[in-house]
Amino acid sequence: MRFGGKRMLCALLCVGLLFSQAAALPEMGALKSKAAALYAADGTELYAYHADEQLQPASVTKIMTMLLAMEAIDSGKVALSDMVTGSAYAASMGGTQIWLKEGEQLTLDEMLKAIAVGSANDCAVAVAEHLAGSEQAFVDQMNQRAKELGCTGTTFVNANGLDADGQKTLTTAHDLALISVELLKHPKIIEYTSIWMDTIRNGQFGLANTNKMLRKYDGMIGLKTGYISQAGFCISAAAQREGLTLIAVVMAAPDKDTRTADASQLLNYGFANFAAYTPDVSAACGDLPVILGKSETVGVMCDAPSTLTVEKEKVGQMSVTYERPKSIAAPVIQGQQIGAVRVLDGDGQVMCELALRAAADVEKQGFWDLFGALCRSVNGME
Questions:
Q1: Which candidate in 6, 34, 62, 314 is catalytic?
Q2: Catalytic residue at 119?
């Protein structure tokens, strides 16, 4: 088995097992929004309600804008200190904005803060132009990235979620959850999405987070709200408790209170019924004897285990088994696979499989190494 895709394997196995056990879980209460989805940050779908129905996301669109920005930052393509210049087109955006002026420059850090906290449509377009040269080129990147993430019902038309010349962004609760999962792989974004109030322009312009659940829901860390009349009230709401991070996507709620109530109900369901489980693989590690090696032993390391999302009542039934040889013949190459760890559920089904690897190189002994060892052995006998 190849281990390069271990995280995907773990996620897929978890999804299958969770759904096979779904009958044992309590039912979700009725939701009033048109569509919803509940995901764990590891990509495990925990609940879906009309999650493949195409709807308008309004400003929740900006989670993809922020994702592409964070990927560009983490890859070194741009830096938070870079100056972003507002174009006439960016400054012409309506809706929520910071009243960006043509030619005005703000750091990318300030732009991201304005997008994440204040849902600034003008800044979203300015960042898109800065990263891709034009908003249209950026939109092409948005749609390409959505396909790469497995989004099958998404078509972006701009960087901010506003209607544009008769066109409108369409997506699904399922797709927004997938994009949110990917965004949370960049922890820096939480420094923006969890801000309640802040300022930009040297303190001259105040920002207040559009996500009021930051003050209403325990553990809330973001991510993004959205509203236009055609879309209704939408949110991708992420919260953390006891090591478990959940994402509740709500689309087309009739009002803010319903959006908050449905998102809260989804998250409450998730935290009540699921837990984060990180397997202890330490017993599988430790030194391994090396036959005819210049070193007598080699350390054994395990690929970093993923945190799995497991039904709470099943956590105590989880177990870890491993296979590794009693010894290994030299030469040994660092990173070489020498065994495997398997995480099992209470029924003995494999939830995750990880590779055991050599922690260092060990050269094979040559003739003179063996001759010297023989001489030392003979001398010791005397």
A1: 62
A2: yes
3-state secondary structure (DSSP) of residue 226: strand
pLDDT at 374: 59
Predicted local confidence at residue 78, as pLDDT = 97
256 annotated active-site = no
- Choose the catalytic residue: 59, 180, 194, 264: 59
Give residues with Cβ within 8 angstroms of 102, minimum separation 6. 86, 87, 88, 91
Average pLDDT over residues 106-133: 98
379 secondary structure, DSSP code: H
User: What angle, 0 to 180 degrees and rounded to 10, lies between the N-to-C axes of helices 62-74 and 121-132?
Assistant: 40
- The catalytic position among 6, 33, 113, 119 is 119
pLDDT at res. 367? 66
**What pLDDT score does 52 carry?**
97
Q: Alpha-carbon distance 117 to 199, whole Å?
A: 10
Maximum CA pair distance of the chain? 96
Q: Specify the pairing of strand 105-107 against strand 319-323.
A: unpaired
Segment 268-294, tens digit of pLDDT: 999 999 999 999 999 999 999 999 998
In this prediction, residues 314-339 reach a mean pLDDT of: 94
Strand order in the sheet with 300-302: 300-302, 350-358, 337-344, 319-323
Is position 59 annotated as part of the catalytic site?
A: yes
Give the mean model confidence (pLDDT) for residues 181-192.
97
